[in-house]
């Protein structure tokens, strides 16, 4: 059952989020599907509810710049942009604060995090009350259009999420503009015009080159890729390979010994990173079922398994 909540239920919506629940809420751009960004399982459930076949890093939502600085590192330019456009439809991609406690599923294992402060009183009141960063992609099933009213959210996600906080309709109606990198680059056009951002920083924004045409590894990469070589669907690892297990296999690293895809998704990036840190050079991955969150997990692993000079 998905509950419809209103502004008198903010404490309830906040409690649901703190318990790891999924709560859709209005922003000035579109309704977001919110989850506690410090809770990997809650974030994994966002992907499951949306039926999304791949993992993208997600935007975290906070009530003000002061909270944003708990999770991201702001240089002078980022701070100037935040002061000029927040609250508002601008998302800033900044280096993640060490020990910020964000789930690696939010950042897709990257060293950066996308942050914004929505310009919607109900959203900010909710974020104040939760007092945790809230990851929120648009609150629609994967492939459907973004919702700009609570009814649209329920049309797509009723029964798949805990609640929708009804705040009426969204005034902007398209997603936020995303900028990041040095030199500052327009990563996604959106609610704040490029010209307004360029006027604020006094310089042109670079234009994002899609990942597939970039040859240098790491450049504006939208996902963490492990250093280790990966082989997928392995029942019996070869000598020299280290098994990344799933379900009931004997392995030092296991995405989910219980065979739970939500747990596996929540562990994915952190385990790849831990294996890199441990100096593992060849990873063999157990078969992972190709349904539900398994689709997104396998998509991510397939990309990571492509030799680096082919990406
Ligand atoms: O208007 C919006 O921004 C809506 C409302 C709900 O706030 N939210 C939204 O969130 O569109 P989301 O999570 O779907 O946006 C994710 C996009 C990714 O596709 C990626 O392009 C970019 O944000 N992104 C997130 N983290 C990033 C990072 N560390 N580096 C580069 N891009 C990042
Ligand atoms: Mg969307």
Write a structural description.
There is one protein chain. The protein is an alpha/beta fold. The chain folds into two domains: 3-201, Alpha-Beta Complex (DHBP synthase); 229-310, no CATH class. The chain is 31% helix and 17% strand. The strands form two sheets. It has an eleven-stranded mixed beta sheet, sandwiched between helices. Strand 9 (177-180) and strand 10 form a beta hairpin. Helix 2 (40-50) packs across helix 9 (261-277) and helix 9 runs parallel beside helix 10. The longest helix is centred in the last third of the chain and has 17 residues, at 261-277. The protein is globular, with a radius of gyration of 20 Å. Residues 27, 29-30, 32, 56-59, 91, 93, 107, 110, 112-114, 118, 136-138, 175-176, 178, 180, 187-188, 222 line the site of threonylcarbamoyladenylate.
Topology summary:
Layout: E1 3-5, H1 10-18, E2 23-25, E3 32-36, H2 40-50, E4 59-61, H3 65-71, H4 76-85, E5 90-95, H5 104-107, E6 112-116, H6 121-130, E7 134-135, H7 150-157, E8 163-165, E9 177-180, E10 185-188, H8 194-201, E11 206-207, E12 229-231, E13 242-245, E14 253-254, H9 261-277, E15 282-285, H10 293-305
Parallel strand pairs: 1-8, 2-8, 4-6, 5-9, 10-11, 12-15, 13-14, 13-15
Antiparallel strand pairs: 2-3, 3-7, 4-7, 5-6, 9-10
Bound molecules: threonylcarbamoyladenylate and magnesium ion.
């Amino acid at each position: 059952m998905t509950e419809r909540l209103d502004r008198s239920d903010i404490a309830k919506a906040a409690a649901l989020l703190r318990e790891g629940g999924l709560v859709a809420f209005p922003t000035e751009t579109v309704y977001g599907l919110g989850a506690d960004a410090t809770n990997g399982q809650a974030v994994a459930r966002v992907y499951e509810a949306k039926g999304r076949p791949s993992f993208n890093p997600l935007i975290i939502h906070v009530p003000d710049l002061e909270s944003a600085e708990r999770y991201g590192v702001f240089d002078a330019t980022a701070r100037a942009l935040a002061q000029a456009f927040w609250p508002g439809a601008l998302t800033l991609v900044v280096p993640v604060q060490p020990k910020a406690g964000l789930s690696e599923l939010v950042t897709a294992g990257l060293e950066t995090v996308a942050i914004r402060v929505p310009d919607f009183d109900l959203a900010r009141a909710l974020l104040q009350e939760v007092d945790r960063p809230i990851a929120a992609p648009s609150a629609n099933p994967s492939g459907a259009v973004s919702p700009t009213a609570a009814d649209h959210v329920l049309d797509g996600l009723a029964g798949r999420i805990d609640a929708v906080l009804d705040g009426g309709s969204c005034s902007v109606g398209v997603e936020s503009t995303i900028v990041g990198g040095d030199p500052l680059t327009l990563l996604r056009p959106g609610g704040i015009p490029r010209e307004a951002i360029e006027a604020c920083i006094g310089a042109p924004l670079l234009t994002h080159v899609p990942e597939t045409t970039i040859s240098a590894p790491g450049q504006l990469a939208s996902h963490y890729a492990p250093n280790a070589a990966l082989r997928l669907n392995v029942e019996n690892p070869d000598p020299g390979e280290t098994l990344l297990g799933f379900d009931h296999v004997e392995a030092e690293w296991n995405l989910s010994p219980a065979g739970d895809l939500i747990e596996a998704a929540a562990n994915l990036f952190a385990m790849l990173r831990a294996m890199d840190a441990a100096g593992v050079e060849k990873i063999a991955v157990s078969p992972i079922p190709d349904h539900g969150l398994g689709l997104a997990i396998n998509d991510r692993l397939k990309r990571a398994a492509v030799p680096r000079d082919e990406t």
